Amino acid sequence: MKSLTLAASLALAIGVAAPSLVSPNYALANETHLVNQQVTDALTNPLRQAANIERDQYRHPGETLSFFGVKPSDTLVELWPGGGWYAEILAPYLAKEGHYIAANFDANPPEGLEVPGYRIRLGKALDKWLKDHGDTLGQASSISFDPPRLIELGAPNSADVVLTFRNLHNWAKSGVLEQVFDSVYKVLKPGGTFGVVEHRANPGMDLSTGYMVQDEMIALAEKVGFTLVASSEVNANPKDSKDHPKGVWTLPPSLRLGDQDKAKYLAIGESDRMTLKFVKKS
Fold first, then answer.
1. Tens of pLDDT along 194-241?
2. Could you tell me the pTM of the whole model?
3. I want to staple 161 with a disulfide (CB 3.0 to 4.6 A). Which of 57, 76, 125, 222 is the partner?
4. Strand-pair partners of 141
């Protein structure tokens, strides 16, 4: 029997209650996003881990994908899917008509290249998950993405959508964020969508906290050539004071302080996040 999880070492039961399709909206009571039936089906598909479904209350996947306008027929690239939280939704959603492409951690880096062990581990797990479920995930595939060494995301003008979730700070720390944005621009078709969700800083916060300044991210995307067409507060969290001792990783799901003040950070929930929709000029 094939594993239903991304990590081969985990064996989580799938018999869980369906997630709520109307998640809490912390900031804008009048901001609504209609979730189509295909997204609804993807949110409740049996490949999703129970622990991941529990995080829907913080990550609002139905509303987020609705805001980005992702269609079942899209060719979509997800940058650094990590443990596959969104892959478990996107790959089934696109299986019949579209194409999910994971711009994955390099699972087989060259000998002698120093790469964090967790990236190799997660890269291998996601590649295995896509292979194990190839019969139900249609054209779903992966490429290795390790900027600046591996920076190409596919043939120019070949993708309808590129999405990234909570990754910008990693590339900024490595000094490659503008290169990543440029690669996204190149792979998108004219009129294609670049969707960004990222931990949102207060002005003047240090990059080491894991939070990024929203206006700076918009300015960088516009410098590359994108146009900001909309922003959403669907992933906002005003409970997040952003002054935590271990930065954003103090909050769930990381909880870097362990049991120290755990109840306090669980009550805050996951970070305050910007949600930005850019398009490539036609």
1. 999 999 999 899 999 999 999 999 999 999 999 999 999 999 999 999
2. 0.89
3. 76
4. 101
For 220, the 3-state DSSP assignment is helix
CA-to-CA distance for 179 and 160, rounded, in angstroms?
19
SS3 199: strand
Q: Give me the residue label for tokens 């492409």.
A: 101
Please state the length of the chain. Answer: 282
Through-space distance between the first and last CA atoms of the chain, rounded to whole angstroms? 47
Tell me the per-residue pLDDT of 16-60, one tens digit each, with 9 for 90 and over.
Answer: 233 333 333 333 445 778 888 999 999 999 999 999 999 999 999
Query: Domain limits of the chain?
Result: 37-243+272-280
How many other CB atoms are there within 10 angstroms of residue 115's CB atom? 16
DSSP E strand stretches across the chain:
75-79, 99-104, 141-144, 159-165, 188-199, 226-232, 273-280
Whether the CB-CB separation of 96 and 70 falls below 8 Å is answered with no
CATH fold of 37-243+272-280 reads Rossmann fold (3.40.50)
Q: What is the DSSP string of 69-129?
A: T--TT-EEEEE--TTTTTHHHHHHHHTTTSEEEEEE--SSPPTT----HHHHHHHHHHHHH
- Give how far the C-alpha of residue 101 lies from the chain's centroid of Cα atoms, to the nearest Å: 13
CA gap 274, 216 in Å, rounded: 12
Tokens at 142, concatenated = 């992966």
